[in-house]
Specification:
The protein is built from 6 helices and 12 strands. By secondary structure, the chain is an alpha+beta fold. Helix 2 crosses helix 5.
């Protein structure tokens, strides 16, 4: 496997915006990283806290996903992040939280945001997968986030070289990206096996609905198979899951 192309920027408004702008000029699976973002954002257009030099802020250009299976992008990114975190701090015990987050215990350490790139005739030509991982973020800065969050520093007690970790992450992601078009079922099975919400009772907000029930599993399109407390089964492609830390396999 060839080394992925990595572009390092000192500061940018958003690595996703930069990658979308230069999508046609950069090679497939190129990664854009920034030391700082001035307008970083996550799902539902939420602000992503981006203190300079502390974390990974990156976006990956994906031009060859099979049959426009955009969910493979999120799977490749989240599995790549999981490998990186386990390599750096196995004691943190990271896990995947549907649809595209990585948690340590009940605290979020990584988020993923995919944006479709359109070409002539407004037809999709690929996807830019944005990823943010809290690396050297202190407890003081983590307290500014409006949900329980953690970092590699907090989990391990060690500081890390962010630029070196960007390089490792790019390699992990490229491996899963290649798996996505060579053996997509294998990619799905790996992603499925890392989701700890299966068979757990959760509350999920999707659209204007707040639902209580149990996670039965996940489909190959990345959708959650959800059984409502009424017994009705639904397939959900997006939503905000609320978890109870006492319900996790390895709570803190």
């Amino acid at each position: 496997m060839d080394e992925p192309t990595i572009i390092f920027l000192d500061e940018v408004d958003s690595t996703n915006r930069y990658a979308l702008e230069y999508f046609d000029h950069l090679p497939d699976c190129a990664m854009v990283c920034a030391a700082s973002q001035t307008a970083g954002r996550g799902r539902f257009d939420r602000r992503w806290e981006s203190p300079s030099g502390e974390n990974i802020y990156a976006s990956v250009i994906m031009k060859n996903l099979p049959d426009h299976k955009w969910q493979y992008a999120a799977m490749a990114l989240s599995l790549g992040a999981l490998d990186l975190l386990r390599n750096c701090a196995p004691e943190a015990d990271p896990w995947l939280k549907w649809p595209n987050d990585v948690y340590c215990g009940y605290r979020k350490i990584c988020g993923v945001l995919g944006e479709i790139k359109t070409g002539p005739g407004n037809r999709p030509s690929g996807i830019v997968g944005g990823i943010g991982i809290n690396i050297n973020m202190t407890l003081e800065n983590l307290a500014k986030i409006n949900q329980p969050a953690t970092s590699l520093l907090v989990e391990s007690g060690r500081n890390f070289n962010v630029k070196n970790l960007c390089h490792e992450l790019a390699i992990f992601i490229k491996g899963y990206y290649i798996m996505g078009f060579c053996n997509p079922h294998k990619l799905f099975k790996l992603w499925y096996s890392e989701n700890r919400l299966i068979d757990r009772n959760i509350t999920i907000e999707t659209g204007n609905l707040t639902l209580n029930g149990r996670v039965s599993g996940f489909g190959e399109d990345g959708e959650m198979i959800f059984e409502c407390s009424s017994g009705k089964q639904m397939r959900l492609h997006s939503g905000d899951v609320r978890i109870d830390k006492n319900s996790l396999i390895n709570p803190e």
